[in-house]
Amino acid sequence: MGALSHIRVLDLSRVLAGPWCAQNLADLGADVIKVERPGAGDDTRHWGPPFAKNPQGDDTEEAAYFISINRNKRSITVDISTPEGQEIIRQLALESDVVIENYKVGQLKKYGLDYESLKQLKPNLIYCSVTGFGQTGPYAQRPGYDFIIQGMGGFMSVTGEADHLPGGGPQKAGVAIVDLFTGMYASSAILAAVIHRDRTGLGQYIDMALLDTQIAVMANISSNYLCTGVPPTRWGNAHPNIVPYQTFPTSDGWMIIAVGNDTQFRQFVKAGGQEHLADDPRFADNPSRVAHRTTLVPLLTEMTKTKTKDDWIKTLEKENVPCGPINDLGEVFANEQVVSRGIELHVPHPTAGTMKLVSSPMKLSETPVEVRLPPPTLGQHTDAVLSERLGMSAQQIAELRLKRVI
After folding, report:
1. CA distance 88 to 96
2. pTM > 0.70
3. Which of 81, 270, 350, 403 has the most CB atoms around its CB within 10 Å?
4. Is 362 helix (H, G, I), strand (E, B) or coil?
């Protein structure tokens, strides 16, 4: 029994932020029903290649993108533009604890599926809306895309190599961090609302915006600006406040050095036969190293080039100097620590045979996360959900399918 096995979630969201939130809740045991468009489904079903392969090695229709964010959910197809479809969603919402949606601001109101409409029918409903800019403000009606928000929210102003260096310029993250963080914040907000409802009996509305989230997760970078009034700039793989804290070349690749104190710095340069650098007043403490970064880093670069990546890491780990390799995903999933933690899962799937998934990082001792269901095929559970939740007969379901409502 998962920690949220008593919670029912109606997921009206598509693409990434909303489905990521719903998957977190599903991993914790919630019964999540994912509502998709008949015949098409969530946009990410078509975001490929790559697609999962069947036992014969041929592509299925299951896009890797969709697979990554929709495990432990049941999929139903409903056309919410029809009166019958709207009534199905309305009845399912009344049977649910939480509704998640990421439609444009005000779009669900014309269907009678907005928070105010559903609240009249179910006062203790928890309703979470995810949009680019929130429900208020001059940008509320604008569509929001992760890439654009990374730029607008300041992330790309501090990500990428410094402008004066080769390849310098703004760079987005390699994954859609704004969507993912918004999904995580939404999960936390929903759990807080569930606790509040259980204490008071009151539901509430949750307004999640990608732009708000992007600015929030700038963390110390935002704080640096608010404390100084000076906008931070790009440092590439370096750190604005700590030196040395960046990538360094070795004789056969790259490694990460993350020196957090003066003792670690001394151990680092001692391992490279350059302990005199720790005695130099310019490099004796972190503020001095930050001030003399442009002098120190080239000296350290020449030092790190004298050994292989593996030699450095073995040596520095013994000296308790934080360091690590830069792995590709093949190396990640082959890593002994990753293998021992069971990060790669193999689960049965109706079209792919066995599907590989990434496990949830949440490790709970009493209510462990389980993959109860693989990512669903489109509309896989429509008949079961309508029968189980709404008591519809096979004939009623067949008539709705004939009308293309489901």
Report:
1. 12
2. yes
3. 270
4. coil
Tokens of 73: 């959910």
* 386 alpha-carbon distance from chain centroid: 30
Q: For a pLDDT cut of 90, what percent of the chain falls above it?
A: 92
- Active site annotation includes 179: yes
Range of the domain at 260: 245-332
Write the DSSP symbol of residue 169.
S
* 182 CB burial (10 A radius; 0-12, 13-18, 19+): buried
| 392 in any annotated domain | yes
3-state SS class at 324: strand
Final residue belonging to a domain, choices 288, 314, 332? 332
Crossing angle for the helix pair 382-390 and 83-94, to the nearest 10 degrees? 60
Alpha helices in 201-219 (DSSP H): 210-216
Catalytic residue among 27, 31, 146, 179: 179
Residue among 316, 276, 318, 311 nearest 296 (CA): 276
State residue 166's pLDDT score: 85
Count of Cβ atoms closer than 10 Å to residue 137 Cβ: 12
Give how many domains the chain has, as a whole number: 2
